[in-house]
Amino acid sequence: MMETPLPDLEAILLVGGRGTRLRPLTLDTPKPLLPTAGVPFLSHQLARARAFGVRRIVFATSYRAEMFSEAFGNGEAFGLELEYMTEEEPLGTGGAIRNAAKALTCGPDDPVLVLNGDILSGHDIGDQIATHVARGAALTLHLTEVDDPSRFGCVPTDDDGRVTAFLEKTPNPVTNRINAGCYVFTRSVIDTIPEGQVVSVERETFPGLIEDGALVLGYADASYWLDVGTPAAFVQGSRDLVLGRLVSPALPGPTGDFLALPGAMISPEAKVSGGSVIGARAIVESGAQVGGSVLGDDCIVHSGAVVVDSVVGIGARVDCGAVLRDVVVGDGAVVGPGNELLAGSRVWPGVVLPESAIRFSSDI
Ligand code: GDD
Ligand code: MG
Q: What 8-state DSSP symbol labels residue 21?
């Protein structure tokens, strides 16, 4: 029996931001390309979009635009058709959507999926699109609940799911429901965004549509959701994928306590757990502990070092007895023996921290 053919859906992926909160990881690599659970972050979003019937995706790029086409090419490997539309100067989320829409092929009444490029979400994209189409909405926003809505777009709705206001990063949120960064637009609505100008969908387009009386729907659910915009969230996302808390068709191995990439060498006397990723050819020596962390390719964690909830960059080195919790070590950096870094520390790429001269009384 033939499967029901899926609609030939088109999507726009917003990937032009600079990812400043993730520095130093994003000094050379855009946030959506950071290795996450063993593959570039976007691989997880692309694979999910594909699974829901998306066939063609237009990347709205700006910062380090060329790196996206180098990573994903024409999309064949994903069973997708990929196009790249680049803004010379970033046009904001709305300007980017308008610019990318030039490469869409669908008609004015068709639904177009728009995705923020830094989200991991387990929601049913197909059902969101079906709801949008069934109710004849102009725009349907995926909504989720978070503890601190002031860092997001706060989105109140009425009893019918109609969005009544859009309050971007307000200090006085009226609900914990926020914009989860996955939209279904009716194509003709995108064409009303002014062309070639800096426009924010969150601050201009969405409030404008609501004010004009257009049908803007909220699609609320309680599935897995994470914005990986900070180092702590980035590490959490990688960990959750490895542990299987969010299923991704792009995970390059079985789910489990950790994911070791090809050539990784983990001593049987090391303790590696909590959804850690050990990069290709990376070395974890005996007595080292790695928990819930992302170790880049070719890095070394020497014996007795402790790495928890942290990122260790490509080719970086963590020497004997060093302790890292919630720390980012840039590519090629060295954390010398015995250093215990404060949570939140960021070691810039290539920096060498010498051996710690401080001794703890318990070690003397
Ligand atoms: N092409 C392009 N051009 N992309 C851009 C631009 C631009 O000028 N500015 C931002 N983007 C992309 C980013 O790369 C990212 O994928 C997405 O747009 C959202 O930008 P963020 O910088 O991550 O925004 P945010 O996390 O502070 O807030 C947004 O996401 C929240 C959910 O995670 C907003 O949409 C909030 O309303 C929402 O709650
Ligand atoms: Mg974000």
A: G
